[in-house]
DNA sequence: TATATTTGCTTAATCGATTAAGCAAATATA
DNA sequence: TATATTTGCTTAATCGATTAAGCAAATATA
């Protein structure tokens, strides 16, 4: 019962007294094999519970039909949704995906890339860890000659395909919205500038203030890892200011939630005293009280487009591909925290 | 630059005028290879940017050093945390993990198993989808002779290793807690009985009521998929009852959150009018208002133990293994919703 | 000094599936 | 009827890495 040897093409071949080559072709419905033989082969394959050995065929064909995916973490709705839609598109095209998590760690990200290359994936779709600054491990993917597609967390310096939303414009939309509600001192709990998307959000925020003739106050702009804890910490600091903000725009929903907790604990009315906007449209933003205004990042589209970009690459590898930078417009979802 | 051929052992061998076999041994620090040769080999390997071809070595060795993992979804903190800890243990032992999601779909789960077997994983660690009743696809793993370890969502009928918490006892702890607070009509928004863990929670709930001499009222026991929507729906139904419950025990945090929303919307004071307990200790339980009492499932331990169970299997495959059913005690985290 | 052992490699087979090349028999075409 | 084409396979090589078996040279032991 246990550990019985796997059935191979050879076993089927010897049972039917034909060559393994014929069996292989029969399984792939080669037109040069008679219908009768195909039927027989499939019957015996089923009888012997034949499972093709992927390692062997991938080795021979030089193609594994696997796509590696690297995400910072899977436990956000954004990444989970991206993965789901990415997988759906790739499955339909005959590819399977291998998901790995970097846990926002640079070291882990490097190891994940090694693992994926080592597993001979046909391509890698990745979103960079917060820690990542050095990009040599990504260069390694490119020098391996397999497609690399980045999404959400990308890098301009890296000459690769990218799918994401327009972070710069998103900040504009947020600031415009808050200004419309009468806010004059808008604080920004941002991510680290070294990450492109967070830098863009900061730039968008600053430019939008300028555009609305509002002064830029450096004490209202902070950089952090954007965790819930960071949100709490920075909100507490902002409340210490002599001249408090009348609105807070956090570059992540987690940070926004942390800020909201502190505001609630201090009995500061949201949105009346301070308006609050997050980023990412995580499900909990609509669950907390008051519900948090946020920006939807079109996770489904990002997953789908990233997958399609990969498929595009492998379908016409002969032609030198032009780079695809696909920037989607984000959507502001207005909720109670800024009404 | 692009699509240059991969470096193989042969390339290194011909550069140094030795055999590929010697190169292979040198890379693995075989004691029968001179230090001088090893150094040379490693120098050239680095120079040519050699990456071993996993497909080839796995095919030859009959071992891929990959472990397949199937989870219903990655976007809960529970599964995400299990994965993180599982991966840490397996990485240390030289294994890499391939994560797949079933999205709670039976069909997807079957496809995932096929993919993993096809990829020649050395073992599979899985948590079953809600929909799953037929277990023949799991039998397929067993008949392939590779270890199968289930966690959280397991099945008694399947003769495999299992790691999870004591669902039956957890219900007892919850009911005792609510009784202590003076509750007499405790409703249970449960999962479907066909899933073992949910069945155990229902049994535990019923037995605990009996133990406390409380009547069993069938109108207070409902089965659902335990989503947030289900929680809302069932809570609304419970509020229609002539004889309303004074406590609700939901078998998932999402369902508990749905129930809480309905209670808040109806201005029913929690915990004063109705006490509420969830299950899973998802982070949002402490974030909503009021915060929700819940049961912690020791996700870290479950991930670690599942991984260790797998390693145990592969380390002594000669001996017929005895089954491991590891049941951890869960922990009640009391919060505002039941104080 | 003669034999035994160790060192440091090479040779050749292997893991399974795939595919280019080839060939005999069957069938189609002129 | 003679030749060309098609059908339905087989043979043999291949994808890279690994490993059992073997062998010559170097070294150790009696």
TrEMBL record, chains A, B:
It comes from the Bacteria. Residues 7-61 form the HTH lacI-type domain. Gene3D superfamilies: 3.40.50.2300, lambda repressor-like DNA-binding domains (1.10.260.40). Keywords: DNA-binding, Transcription, Transcription regulation. InterPro entries: HTH_LacI (IPR000843), LacI/GalR-like_sensor (IPR046335), Lambda_DNA-bd_dom_sf (IPR010982), Peripla_BP_I (IPR028082). The keyword Ion transport does not apply. SMART domains: HTH_LACI (SM00354). Pfam families: LacI, Peripla_BP_3. GO terms for molecular function: DNA-binding transcription factor activity; transcription cis-regulatory region binding. CDD domains: HTH_LacI, PBP1_LacI_sugar_binding-like. PANTHER family: HTH-TYPE TRANSCRIPTIONAL REGULATOR GALS (PTHR30146:SF109), LACI-RELATED TRANSCRIPTIONAL REPRESSOR (PTHR30146). This is Transcriptional regulator, LacI family. It comes from Winogradskyella thalassocola.
């Amino acid at each position: 019962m246990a550990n019985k040897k796997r059935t191979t093409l050879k076993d089927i071949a010897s049972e039917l007294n034909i060559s393994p080559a014929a069996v292989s072709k029969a399984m792939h419905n080669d037109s040069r094999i008679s219908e009768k033989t195909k039927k027989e082969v499939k019957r015996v394959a089923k009888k012997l519970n034949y499972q093709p050995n992927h390692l062997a065929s991938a080795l021979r064909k030089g193609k594994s039909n696997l796509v590696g995916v690297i995400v910072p973490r899977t436990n956000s709705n954004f990444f989970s949704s991206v993965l789901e839609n990415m997988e759906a598109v790739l499955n339909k095209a005959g590819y399977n995906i291998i998901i790995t998590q970097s846990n926002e760690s640079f070291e882990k990200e490097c190891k994940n890339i090694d693992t994926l290359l080592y597993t001979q994936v046909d391509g890698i779709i990745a979103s960079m860890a917060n820690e990542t600054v050095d990009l040599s491990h990504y260069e390694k993917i490119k020098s391996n000659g397999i497609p690399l597609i980045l999404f959400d967390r990308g890098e301009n310096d890296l000459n690769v395909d990218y799918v994401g939303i327009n972070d710069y414009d998103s900040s504009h939309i947020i600031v415009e919205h808050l200004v419309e509600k009468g806010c004059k001192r808008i604080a920004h709990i941002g991510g680290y500038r070294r990450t492109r998307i967070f830098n863009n959000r900061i730039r968008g925020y600053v430019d939008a203030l300028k555009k609305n003739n509002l002064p830029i106050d450096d004490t209202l702009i902070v950089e952090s890892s954007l965790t819930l804890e960071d949100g709490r910490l920075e909100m507490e600091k902002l409340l210490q200011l002599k001249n408090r903000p009348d609105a807070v725009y956090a570059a992540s929903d987690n940070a926004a939630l942390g800020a909201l907790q502190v505001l609630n604990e201090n009995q500061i009315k949201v949105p009346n005293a301070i308006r609050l906007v997050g980023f990412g449209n995580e499900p909990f933003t609509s669950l907390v009280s008051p519900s948090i205004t946020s920006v939807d990042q079109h996770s489904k589209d990002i997953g789908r487009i990233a997958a399609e970009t990969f498929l595009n690459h492998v379908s016409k590898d002969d032609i030198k591909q032009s780079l695809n930078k696909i920037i989607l417009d984000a959507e502001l979802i207005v909720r109670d925290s800024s009404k």
